[in-house]
Each structure stands twice: as structure tokens, then as C-alpha cells.
Amino acid sequence: MASAAFAEKISWKSVHLFWGDERAVPPDHPDSNYHLANEALISHVPISPQNVHRMPGERSDLQAAADEYEKTLRDFFGPSDPGWPSFDLVLLGIGSDGHTASLFPGSPVLKETVRWVAAPYVEKLKAARLTLTLPGLNHARRVIFLAAGREKASIMREVLSDDPPSTNLPARMVQPRKGACLFFLDQDAASLIEKDS
């Protein structure tokens, strides 16, 4: 999207960028999701700084940061029906354990039904994060998962199986209520998925 072939075809003044999750680091830290997005895209396209709504991961009080970001979303989307943000497009990755955004297996945040943004402590990583909650993701108009690498093959087979959805596999729990969910996988990530006969 940052290349000349595509950047000039997008009306950047109409684009608003939000974050699905963020690490508890400053925006210029190499581990920051904002930093990565800025390096790969934002700094290369004519998008207004007012249209870039990053999560404040550098705040010492991450719960306050989650509250602040939820207010940012509520102010932007206004009163909405049925009371959740309705993103046009959500891009998500997937971990080899099935986590997506900063929603990890076993996290109490998977049961959240009120908050738009949470600040979970991820025991596996011994770190706190900011993340959108499942209802926030599930009210998007379109969700796209991107996965690459053989280490993702096993979990992609599980996520895309016809079995009833697991209540402890976050990526499988992302099921837009009225939107579409698409998966873009490289050959390695798709290697264990059975082809239609």
C-alpha cells in the first residue's frame, strides 16, 4: 500500500488507522506495533496525523491507557448500534498458539462482554498489553487474517476446521457477526489444510 502503484490510488484523507493491540513500550521502540506500522506504511503515505489513532502503550498505567483508547474509539464512532465500533477492515495476525491481537488462550479477556479495549497481563510473555476485545473485533465489516510459515500450519488447520468453535482459541473466536472473515496464508501455513476433493 505504501508503493507508488497503490498509494496514489487511495484517498488517504478518508482513511483512519486504529490499532488492534499494542505492547507496553513507547511509540519509537522497535517492538511497538505503531513503530512497525509507521516504518512500513504511515511515513510513506500522505495520511493526516489526526487520522492516525495509536494506542498509548507508553503509559505507566495501562488500564488508564485502555480507558483512554476506548474513549478515542467511542468519540470517533459515536453512538452506534449495537453499541460497538464498526471497523471497515481489521487486519490480524495469528500466533502458533492461536492468539490474535493480544488475546491469548486462557485469558479472562476472552470472556469480556462490555469493554471495547482491555489491558491484559499475558502470563506466557510476562508482560502487559493493550488489546481490542472480541466483541470489538466481531462487529467489524471485514476481518482479514495473515499467516505465514510452517510453524503456523498446525494452528491454521485447527482454526479452519469444521469442528465447533473452541472457546479457548482466540483466532477461532473471531467471527464477525455481520461481516466477512478471510484468511491469506502462504503455502507453508496452509500445508496441513486438506484441499477440497
Account of the protein in words:
The protein is of the alpha/beta class. The protein has one domain: 3-Layer(aba) Sandwich (Rossmann fold). 22% of the residues lie in helices and 16% in strands. Strands 2, 5, 6 and 7 form a 4-stranded antiparallel beta sheet that branches. Strands 4-8-9 form a 3-stranded parallel beta sheet, with no helix packed on it. A hairpin with a 4-residue loop joins strand 6 and strand 7. The model has no long low-confidence stretch (mean pLDDT 93).
Strand element count? 9
| Radius of gyration of CA atoms, rounded to a whole number | 17 Å
- How far apart, in Å, are the first and last alpha carbons? 35 Å
Distinct helical segment count: 6
Q: Which CATH architecture would you pick?
A: 3-Layer(aba) Sandwich
Strand/helix succession: HEEHEHEEEEHEHHE
What global shape is seen?
globular
Overall average pLDDT: 93
Structural class: alpha/beta
Number of domains: 1
Percent of residues in helices comes to 10-25%
Which parts are unreliable, with pLDDT below 50 for 5 consecutive residues or more?
Answer: none
Top CATH class: Alpha Beta
In percent terms, what proportion of residues is strand?
A: 15-25%
Instruction: Give me the CATH fold name.
Output: Rossmann fold
Largest beta sheet, briefly?
Answer: 4 strands, antiparallel
